[in-house]
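Researcher: Quick test of sequence recovery. Tokens follow.
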């Protein structure tokens, strides 16, 4: 605390701001959090600048102020914070308080992506694939999509799984694609649950298991993603096997993700 009061430790001041912002060990107080973040920002803390940007963007302890959020994100990104760069990318992508600019969005997404932010890697891969704000570059799009998937970005995992399973822009590998579908399905993604159910129903990329396929289909369907073909797989099961699938699906829904693995 002495280091904080002396005003010469940006990291300590940022940490104290975080404690007040989250109510960790001290009473929740966003006003005090902002005061400490501002002191830390003046001392050069990129993380404090980012935190102030988020407070203004979300309206934590104050009215939403997108202009102020942009200002803090710009300072933080300039100081090397990749998460701030990603948020700036979103601002320009969505045109929130600024003129929509895909080129600026791509520039900031690249800064965030190269800094290891999975959301930025995925966002940049989408722009590169479509040629929005940047020239089309399928190889670079795949590189960033893969990087995001390797950080457990679920949407990236699903898109990479589809590409890998079908051989779209990458060597076809049904087993690797099925494994990615399963990983994303375990994270609760309905599309992955549906695709993995189809994989299991026919035994392509993974051993055929119609009971497990039915269970995954039931989970996807519970999230609103129906599939007449998989309805037919369920209907083809014996009453005993259908009950097994229903039991697995019900346990999954009742418990936390990954508690039950069809």
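Model:
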């Amino acid at each position: 605390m002495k280091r904080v009061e002396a005003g010469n430790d940006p990291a300590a001041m940022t940490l104290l701001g975080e404690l007040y912002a989250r109510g960790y060990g001290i009473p929740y107080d966003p006003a005090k959090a902002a005061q400490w973040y501002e002191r830390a920002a003046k001392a050069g803390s990129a993380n404090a600048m980012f935190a102030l940007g988020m407070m203004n963007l979300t309206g934590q302890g104050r009215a939403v102020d997108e202009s102020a959020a942009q200002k803090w994100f710009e300072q933080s990104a300039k100081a090397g914070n990749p998460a701030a760069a990603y948020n700036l990318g979103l601002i320009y992508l969505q045109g929130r308080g600024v003129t929509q600019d895909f080129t600026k969005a791509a520039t900031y997404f690249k800064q965030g992506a190269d800094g290891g932010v999975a959301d930025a890697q995925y966002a940049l891969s989408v722009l590169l694939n479509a040629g929005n704000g940047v020239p089309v570059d399928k190889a670079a799009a795949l590189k960033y999509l893969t990087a995001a998937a390797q950080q457990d970005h679920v949407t990236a995992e699903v898109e990479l799984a589809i590409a890998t399973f079908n051989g779209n822009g990458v060597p076809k590998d049904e087993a690797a694609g099925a494994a990615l579908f399963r990983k994303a399905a375990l994270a609760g993604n309905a599309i992955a649950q549906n695709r993995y159910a189809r994989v299991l129903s026919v035994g392509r990329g993974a051993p055929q298991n119609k009971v497990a396929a039915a269970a995954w289909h039931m989970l996807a369907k519970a999230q609103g993603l129906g599939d007449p073909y998989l309805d037919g797989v369920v209907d083809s099961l014996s009453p005993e096997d259908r009950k097994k699938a229903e039991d697995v699906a019900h346990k999954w829904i009742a418990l936390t993700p990954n508690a039950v693995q069809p």
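The first helix runs from residue 2 to 6.
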